[in-house]
UniProtKB/TrEMBL annotation:
GO terms for cellular component: cytosol. NCBIfam families: MTH1187 family thiamine-binding protein (TIGR00106). This is MTH1187 family thiamine-binding protein. Residues 3-92 form the Thiamine-binding protein domain. It comes from Streptomyces ficellus. Belongs to the UPF0045 family. Pfam families: Thiamine_BP. It comes from the Bacteria.
Length: 97
């Protein structure tokens, strides 16, 4: 499964990069395949391990912010691995055709 999620601290002002970095650090230290862009962090793995990473990423932000917003989108597709790379490669292949 691939989960794309965004954790936003609320009540801490406009500069939230350091809080978001706390969440991304949890994801990167998880050892699961992941990718971060300007809007979301995507992480790939089995249901329980991915949801555990999301929960811990939210907790890392929650430890320093009075309120946290979580946006999550999941692609639940049993048996598929390396979806983070394969999905992008498929689009790129169509673009180059």
């Amino acid at each position: 499964m691939i989960v794309a999620f965004s954790v936003t601290p609320l009540g801490v002002g406009e500069e939230v990069g350091e809080y978001v970095a706390d969440a991304v650090r949890v994801v990167r230290e998880s050892g699961l395949p992941n990718r971060t862009d300007a809007m979301f962090t995507s992480v790939e793995g089995e249901w329980d391990e991915v949801m555990d990473v999301v929960k811990r990423a939210v907790a890392a932000v929650e430890a320093r912010a009075p309120r946290v917003s979580l946006v999550l989108k999941a692609d639940v597709r049993p048996g598929v691995t390396d979806g983070l790379t394969a999905k992008v490669e498929t689009v790129e292949r169509h673009l180059s055709a």
